[in-house]
Amino acid sequence: MNTLSKKNDLIDEFDIIAKFFTPLAKDAPGTFGLLEDAAILPTIDSHQEWVVTVESIVCNVHFLPNDPFELIARKALRVTLSDLAAMGAKPYGYTLTIALNRDLSDSCYLLEKVSHGLTIDQAEFGIHLIGGDSVSTDGPITLAITAFGITNKAKALRRSAAMPGQDLWISGTIGDGALGLQVAKGILSKQYSDLAGRYRLPQPRISLGCRLSEIAAAAIDVSDGLILDASHIANQSKCRLVIDGGALPISESVSRIIADHSEMFELILTGGDDYELLFTAEPEAIQKIKQAGYELDIPITRIGRVDSGEGVDVLDHNGIKLNLLIEPGWTHF
Amino acid sequence: MNTLSKKNDLIDEFDIIAKFFTPLAKDAPGTFGLLEDAAILPTIDSHQEWVVTVESIVCNVHFLPNDPFELIARKALRVTLSDLAAMGAKPYGYTLTIALNRDLSDSCYLLEKVSHGLTIDQAEFGIHLIGGDSVSTDGPITLAITAFGITNKAKALRRSAAMPGQDLWISGTIGDGALGLQVAKGILSKQYSDLAGRYRLPQPRISLGCRLSEIAAAAIDVSDGLILDASHIANQSKCRLVIDGGALPISESVSRIIADHSEMFELILTGGDDYELLFTAEPEAIQKIKQAGYELDIPITRIGRVDSGEGVDVLDHNGIKLNLLIEPGWTHF
């Protein structure tokens, strides 16, 4: 496409593709070295289907300007893979759009770091780049990723499948991402750098998501905050979710922080960025869930139940509904 | 995902989706009202395959700040559909990422226009929105689109399939987009507003692309400039393309402009933004090509040939190679 402004002759778009992105697509059939107008997805079995999801992240909004570029790229990819995990899909590949600031002094350095980060995560998750576009902008660096996964037909997990009587479960621990952001911003002590690491590099629960597609009813990943994400299940399933505040699984670091800063407790409920799977299942699924957690070495905790009604309630250890003073989670505008 | 900056409470991300984007997905199975973490692509016949392509456009780079938002959105969609056309794929749907400036005084107005523009083009091209993400940025408005099309298996057109002895063809007229940009910028007279219209709202050659998948060898859409795009076919096919400069199809408006401003002739060869299909075919395909052009009411012109060698040469009416003084086309950096 044509342009309205002068180009920077130092870097050529095709050199960028060849140097930094073609290597990421080399093992993906149908991508033709990223030299065609489009890529071809492989044929899947007739009992499978493609799942597609989109995420974008913007410098200053979703990451700090000093965050290492490798980690920014890996986080962008991982939050997208987390959406696939929440649908119970096995990831196959992704397209990447990168908008680079035209005044950036060393685009090549940045792109090398992005490409390196993506190379690491492609190996970790067994996926490939299948297409992309790079453009210049006078704004902040922005990455947009569309990820492709595969599920068995009609087995994708949905937010709308919760039913009264089901149990509510969560994987891993929550609050680490939200408090990790406080560490990354310097508000909390660097002694909790493990939490900042988790904020910067979430772990999408892909294997668990695939297992849950045969076990769970409704599912979502906790990206915007436990309560807000729970409310999506509640709203779309037309149910009430009741969370036992005392049952929430928290890490030792978060536990220590809360002991010193009780005002941060609500961040556990509302902060987001954990990328754990919140899901509902029939009570008789308990053995399969525990077995999956054991085999995958992921703690899975029952934190409540699905009831008739609407909304999300959090109960304290006396069974009394908590009055939360702050907003339930993050929305982008 | 969590954020690092204060949100604008006036608009809620979920309200945005419900109001402006869910209606665009209402007829697409597997999109669940855009309320899930991901969408499911429909199952296609076993003799078909999915084709995927990505484009992004940035305010101030790919469009002028005063361009109407409906047209910006439609252009973003159409340039992506043009990539599908160049592969010979029939478009099915697309995902959209929109980054909105946080200081925008009326995001709802903009989104309404974007949604309206996309509604028009969805109807025109028989496609659906299947997923998306909206984020805030402190930079310019940016749209990223991933489009999905379907081809018959192993029938996708490639840039690498040109062979010596084939003819080189182009659809429609060229130069309108490049000179249209000069009109839009006020450099050329408003009497040529038809060209500006073509710059702002290109016409992807979808029906022709589908027909060509059974007729043509190599193909590409002319987005970055005739010579640069021709060089992609030449490079990837390891051939030389010879273009007869006197045979280039130009519109009456472009013809008149060139008569007055001969210095603009080279923009026809290098300007881009035409979104016509440049393709090669065996000489015996001529009747099928003419028949396709007749049935689709699209002029298709033989503008040269494929030869052994490398690169792209443009010959004048005496068969003498032109020495082009300016660069062959647009690259983004």
UniProtKB/TrEMBL annotation, chains A, B:
Residues binding Mg(2+) 2, per UniProt: 83
Binding site for Mg(2+) 4: 37, 53, 83
PANTHER family to which the protein is assigned, alphabetical: THIAMINE-MONOPHOSPHATE KINASE
Keywords: ATP-binding, Kinase, Magnesium, Metal-binding, Nucleotide-binding, Thiamine biosynthesis, Transferase
Database matches in HAMAP family: TMP_kinase
Protein name: Thiamine-monophosphate kinase
Binding site for ATP: 132-133, 159, 223
EC number: 2.7.4.16
Organism the protein comes from: Candidatus Endolissoclinum faulkneri L5
Residues that hold Mg(2+) 5 according to the record: 224
Sequence positions that bind substrate: 62, 273, 330
Binding, Mg(2+) 1: 133
